Amino acid sequence: MTYRDEIILETFDVRVRILTLAGEQATAWHFHSEVTDKMLCLEGRIAVEFRDPSARVELAPGGRCEVSVDRIHRVVNLTVDSAKYLLVQGVGRYDFNTVETTG
User: Fold this and answer.
1) N or C: which end of the chain has fewer CB within 10 A?
2) What is the 3-state secondary structure (H, E, C) of the chain?
3) Could you tell me which of 66, 75, 31 has the C-alpha nearest to residue 52?
4) In this structure, is the dihedral angle defined by the CA atoms of residues 41, 44, 45 and 51, taken in order, positive or negative?
5) Which residues contact 82 (CB under 8 A, 6 or more apart)?
6) CATH number of the domain within which 70 lies
7) Does 1 have pLDDT greater than 70?
8) What are 20-59's pLDDT values in tens digits?
9) Looking at the whole model, is its pTM more than 0.85?
10) Tens digits of per-residue pLDDT, 52-102?
11) How far does CA 36 lie from the centroid of its chain?
12) What separation, in Å, do the N-terminal and C-terminal C-alpha atoms of the chain show?
């Protein structure tokens, strides 16, 4: 299984997607300049990791997390099997601004 991005709904200022990460896969460190991310773990276990300041929220199925505008973050699959989460992004113009990794 590889990364999968299934768009459920997309308008000018809202996106609803189901994302699947392969075992131990992670998204790039990034931030959004207008939209808030709202995540709901559907399968497996994921972590939402934050920078500046550093923090980590672990989610099992049914667990939720919100990432505010301009907050640097990434999503990590904590298992060797695939993990799936629902991602609601809005309200605003979508962007994906990657951030250099350190160390």
Assistant:
1) C
2) CCCEEEEEEECCCEEEEEEEECCCCECCCEECCCCEEEEEEEECCEEEEECCCCEEEEECCCCEEEECCCCCEEEEECCCCCEEEEEEEECCCCCCEECCCCC
3) 31
4) negative
5) 1, 20, 21, 22, 23, 43, 44
6) 2.60.120.10
7) no
8) 999 999 999 999 999 999 999 999 999 999 999 999 999 9
9) yes
10) 999 999 999 999 999 999 999 999 999 999 999 999 999 999 999 999 876
11) 11
12) 29
Retrieve residue 27's tokens: 């998204």
Domain that holds residue 32: 4-95
Q: 74, 29 in Cβ contact below 8 A?
A: yes
Tally of domains in the chain: 1
